[in-house]
Amino acid sequence: MAGLSAYRDQQWQGTRGELELTLETSCTLYVGNLAFYTTEEQIYELFSKVGEVKLVIMGLDRHKKTPCGFCFVEYYEHEDAENATRYINGTRLDDRIIRTDWDTGFIEGRQFGRGKSGGQIRDEYRTSYDPGRGGKPKRESLESSDSGPPVVQSSA
Amino acid sequence: MSRKRYEDRDRDDGRNRKRRKVDLNDVEDKLESLINRVGEKSSASLENNLQQLANVLEADLPNYKERILKIICTCATNSPDKISVYSTLVGLLNVKDYKCGEDFLDLMVDDLKNVLKSGSFERAQLMIRFLADLVNTKVVVPSSLMNLFDNFLAVTMEDNLIQVRSDWFVHTVLLSLPWAGKELWTTRASDCERLFNTIEIYLNNRQKTHVDGLRVWSSDHPHLQEEYLDCLWAQIQKLKNDNWVEHHIRRPYLSFAETFADALQHPLPNFPILSREENVEYPPPHVVFRMFDYTDVPEGPTMPGAHSVERYLVEESLNRIINTHYKDRKECASQLMKFPEREKIPLEYCIIEVIFGNLFKLPVSPQLELFYGSLLVDLCKSQQATIPGVLAQATELLYERINTMNTTCLHRFITWLSYHFSQFQYKWTWDDRIALTEESPDSPHRKFVIEVLEKCLRSSYYEFILEVVPESLHVLVPPKPYFSYRYEEKSGPSPGHEHAKGLVDSIKARKPMDELLTLVNNIPNSPSDEEDMDYSQDDPRIPSLKIDVCFQVLLRAGAKSVSHTFKALDKFEKLLRSVVTNEEEERHCLEVLRSFWKLHPQMIHIVTDRLIRMQIVHSGSFINWLFSKEMANDFHRSYMWEILHSVLRKATKQTKKIKADLEKERIKLERLEDKHKKQNEEKSESGVTDIEEIEIKRQEVQGHTDQLEPMQDEQKQVFIVLFQRFVMMLNQHIARCEEQQQEINSPTFIAILDRLREVFYTYHREIKPYISTLDTHLFTSDVDHHILNIFNQYRALST
Lengths: 156, 799
Description:
By secondary structure, chain A is α+β, with helices and mostly antiparallel strands. Chain A contains four helices and six strands, in the order αβαββαβββα.
């Protein structure tokens, strides 16, 4: 098995042991560092390369109900999810290095960002400007989030 | 003796035992690590290290002999790149202790028998190569190795030869010769002549039916695409003519010639030849992939020639690195670049050639295609100065040669290239493709670029691709993915529009399902009557208005995203089921889907998968639809074949799973029954509960069997329908060509044959049980030889 990373859901309700066990048989992945404008179809396209995807659940801004840069991908088979962690984790989607982590399976409510702004907490802590994730950090300006695709950089 | 003292002594004993055990483990661990590490980078010379290690081991031999020999045995098989290091070590130990060499051979051969029994043929070959190398360190008598090889080659003269089996034995001998050839030839020249003759005769008389189907390119220009045994044989012959001189294998034993001079050599223990068993799966044959020669490498070390044994040895080592580290692409990339002989060969070229060889390998590529893609990305990132340039050169070569590329490989190439672009901002020499816009729509290169662009659109967003691709190429970019809803309000009015509007309004008004059902069932079943239809009017297979309206409205309701579509399908499943009730209607359903998402093939794929999972559409209907007249234009497009494979994978996966479960349960039942039998014999009392338990297990097994049988029948049916449709389509083509007196082997015809072969190859295990049915009913001798060839090529992979 592609080893578990250090990430654990902070709101898990069971014991640590149960958490590890659930993760080791899981078919679900948390996918992070997505651009806000990356679509479900693009995620299907990439993640289907290792096996049939059962479900993609886009992470949404709690208030605006727009994508906020993460999603859950559920496979029919554990083995396929494992291959996604081997060959998709750390590669690019919409030119951003995305990361995958094992997840215990989707529960209603988890599709929403947990930050004060409604999006992900990390967008409130980041310090740099990130055009793929609404531009300025959320903490500075809660209103101005332009989630349209960035213009192409002039190719080198 | 007081009780206390007694206890004390007990405890003391325990502690001592423990301590002794720890010591034992310590020594064993230390030995293991020493043996494991010898031959790795070190400040001292390898010869020095080996001598020292042999001295250390000699001291420990009296106490740990079995353990030491076992460790060497494991190390030699686990690190095939160091076999000569270990053969030297065994040689040194044999000089010190004659019995030790003998014991080692017994142990090794015992191990080998088990490895063969478990069907690990590749591992067994490496072990035999190691045994062969032991003639160089004077552990094994050359004549006994010769005997072993003679026994192997005797298999080629058996009656009712199974070629994959005799191939394996010949292959094993050839694989050992770079190591042992020189010694054998020096000591037993006439026996060797005989051996070579036998091999030559065997190879000349071998069936070559499989070769055409395994070639990546149908052309041998510019590089010969050779059958693997023929190629290896040519390399071995050249090696022999070069007096067995090569520069790849390190041979530390050469410095110990004097030490070995008075060693006592042993005959190899008896080694029975594996019997011919039905269920043993020998490795299938393959064709050696070649895309570079020395002219492709502008500077640095030259590329070894196709028939130089170095080329083979380098490829073998690189392949081994890839197969060892496939679970970790970063580690894999770094190990490849650490290749020990890198100053002797153009390493980057060798690596790229080997990776593409794996990606394009037929019948199936050894790992997921995405593994090779992600490995190439990591190589590009970690070796920015070298790999990207070589990869660009390779891509250009592959692109130039697509005319003769096998259809299966061509589509793997398209999928890989578009994936690779997605990792590097879709940068390519797009300007060089502009000339394609002038070429005919049938031009393979033009079609290729369109398919690549279509794939790129799926992984990016539309505008980004338009920005990257020069404007003059935009005509080749497929239209923006979008849905085509037939019943837009502004396009009406017609009866269909009215029904659609009624349905939409009722859904919006949240009318109960019963009402919706009545509404849908009141739509006439007549062929839909739109004028702007994509369906041809006089075809009896036009979807009925009922299905068209109902499904179009559902798809429109979910058109915003995949999730929305799935929600709509789940919510209105009943509606859809009420209009799709037989195979013809299932095909109509697919036709509506295609018309709705004609600009978005990925959605057709995703929704078809879903409809099949929901069992609204069945695999057989999909296949009949794929081969129907309406699909003539899409039949050759990548996306349709992706869907077909997705459908076939689903059909086979479930059966595979249940089969495995059944096997497990069966073993459990057998164990219970055995236990029960034993207890009966011993007349023990606990019989009653066991009988109940056995009965429950029996029912479980029966349950699995009952479940499996209809599924297996269904699976068989799916493949039979598929093959029938292939044969029909190919026959029609042949008849048409004969009528119009045209050449049969058109690109379209070849592409269909390639696809037929692809189905055989991809599901070779699943199809195997039906071979005799196919043989007697479908691929009979009256079938055209072009078609029959494909079937025979498939059969040749396992016989």
